[in-house]
Amino acid sequence: IMLHSTLALSLLLIAVSSNLAMAIKKEKRAPQTLSRGWGDEITWVQTYEEGLYQAKKSNKPLMVIHHLEDCQYCQALKKAFAENEEIQEMAQNNFVMLNLMHETTDKNLSPDGQYVPRIMFIDPSLTVRADITGRYSNRLYAYEPQDIPFLIENMKKALRLIQTEL
């Protein structure tokens, strides 16, 4: 019995120390403060103006996420967004990404009101795409966690529009 518990204890210590080593290793990477939990591997722009500039320069659509820290719907969407590999991969490679916790002065970004969460796409010609909307007629740019497949389709639509129109 003594041997058994010593073995169990050493296995536990190994598990704890390797988890600790992994946590330390993870910590080494500078935290991506601009991600605010939407995806740490994604390169985020800091301002709407920077986003427009990068979209034009890179010929990628700009995706703008309006959200607030204390909004439960935003938190739920953020979790689903951050956990979805397809979204994260597209956001990393094909989009200029911006998440804002305040309203912009650009009225084109609130065509049907200033609600959160709200996700809008701006193409590289700097046109806000009023034709890429979510499923809700009362809040055109709102998405809920269960709308993630719909959001993926809209991201693909934004990419297709660039190829066909611009």
From TrEMBL:
* Database matches in CDD domains: AGR
SUPFAM superfamilies linked to this entry: Thioredoxin-like
Keyword Cell cycle on entry: no
The reply on keyword Signal is yes
Q: Which GO terms describe its molecular function?
A: dystroglycan binding
Q: Kindly give the InterPro entries that the UniProt entry links to this protein.
A: AGR/TXD, Thioredoxin-like_sf
Cellular component GO terms, alphabetical: endoplasmic reticulum
Q: Which Pfam families match?
A: Thioredoxin_7
Signal peptide (UniProt feature, chain positions)? 1-23
> What keywords appear on the UniProt entry?
Signal
Record family assignment: Belongs to the AGR family.
Name of the protein this chain belongs to: Anterior gradient protein 3
